[in-house]
Design a protein that fits this description.
By secondary structure, this protein is α+β, with helices and mostly antiparallel strands. The chain contains two helices and seven strands, in the order αββββββαβ.
């Protein structure tokens, strides 16, 4: 008797919910996304000695903003490699999804295994979850790199 492996079935509701939550997180970190071209801040936490996060606007359209998120080390640590993410922020749908991860574009919701790129069956879902965790970490541990200036003083 041959046992057939169950193929992965993506949970589109949870993927959509993660992308919707990522939209809220992006706007919480970058409320001036419609007016400012980039945002840079530092993060420090238990898993990091310090990193700089840059959120840069690549393109603005009436309902969509293309964003690149890069994390770099404050100190040169060649053994730590942070991924670069390209994000599409849909303002009309109030959702944000990763469209490129380290130059891997057109991510699919399901991959057969094995595959040439060694992707997990749920690679796109995992990348969007990673993006959500990165945004949450930035919200909780982010700090301004510039001194704050208050009006009137």
């Amino acid at each position: 008797m041959e046992i057939r492996k169950k193929s992965y079935v993506p949970d589109l509701k949870s993927v959509a919910a993660e992308c919707d939550a990522n939209y809220i997180r992006v706007l919480r970190l970058f409320p001036a996304i419609h007016e400012v071209d980039d945002l840079e801040f530092g993060v420090e936490g238990t898993t990091s000695d310090g990193a700089i996060v840059t959120i840069a606007i690549v393109e603005r359209c009436p309902y969509t903003t293309m964003v690149t998120v890069k994390v770099t080390n404050e100190e040169d640590k060649p053994w730590i490699h942070w991924p670069s993410l390209d994000i599409r922020v849909y303002h009309d749908l109030q959702t944000a999804e990763v469209i490129s991860f380290e130059r891997h574009r057109n991510l699919q919701y399901r991959y057969s295994t094995p595959n040439p790129n060694m992707f997990h069956p749920d690679e796109k879902s995992q990348i969007n979850k990673f993006f959500g965790e990165l945004l949450t970490f930035c919200i909780e541990h982010g700090r301004s790199l510039q001194p704050l200036v208050f009006g009137g003083d």
